[in-house]
Amino acid sequence: MEELVFALPTSELWKLISYKENGLIKENSEVLKRIIQNGLFRKRSELEEDPSFKQIIPYAIISNKESYYLFKRTFKQTEKRLHNKFSLGVGGHMNPSNSKESKEQYLINELKRELFEEVKLLNGCLIENIEFIGFINDDTISVGSVHIGLFYNIHVSNKEIVINETDKMTADWIDKHDLAEFYEGMETWTKITFDYYIK
């Protein structure tokens, strides 16, 4: 059965938030709520090259005080565009759920699902807070023109995190002041995260 993904007509999106061709659009959770309530599920194959819709992608960085968890994707990663790229974010497409929860709670659950697909939290490492920051947009590249990131910061209580699929990626905690060293190798949304939020 074909994958269904959560999306919003692009024209509707830009009525709700200020347009920025490339960058971070800081917003509050009330705007996020309206977007989530108006979204719908469509076949992914129909949306991948249709800029009249934006696929909604929860995208979260993991932080502990002034340090950030930086991933490096290997060539065994499914998404070829990310091979050997550095990434601060975990996230992915939202698929339909049968549960009766609100769409807002569903969004957080999808974010946590993506997180726990990538990493395990060990030795008392807890999620202290999931903070919504805004939207990441990049209409300067074709893949960006059909996606928008719902940008979150997941604050954790310590650094006891390990990767689940060590053949597909590696990761390490990097101090805020050292992140610039990795900039040239970062994927697009991570560069936006660094430029507009961390730096």
Q: Could you explain the architecture of this structure?
A:
Strands 1, 2, 3, 4, 5, 6, 7, 9, 10 and 12 form a ten-stranded mixed sheet that branches. This protein has a two-stranded antiparallel sheet with strand order 8-11. Strand 4 and strand 5 form a beta hairpin. The radius of gyration is 16 Å and the shape is globular. It has a single domain, classed as Alpha-Beta Complex (Nucleoside Triphosphate Pyrophosphohydrolase). It contains five helices and twelve strands. It is of the alpha+beta class and 199 residues long. The mean pLDDT is 92.
Short description:
The protein has 5 helices and 12 strands. By secondary structure, the protein is an alpha+beta fold. The protein has a single domain, classed as Alpha-Beta Complex (Nucleoside Triphosphate Pyrophosphohydrolase).
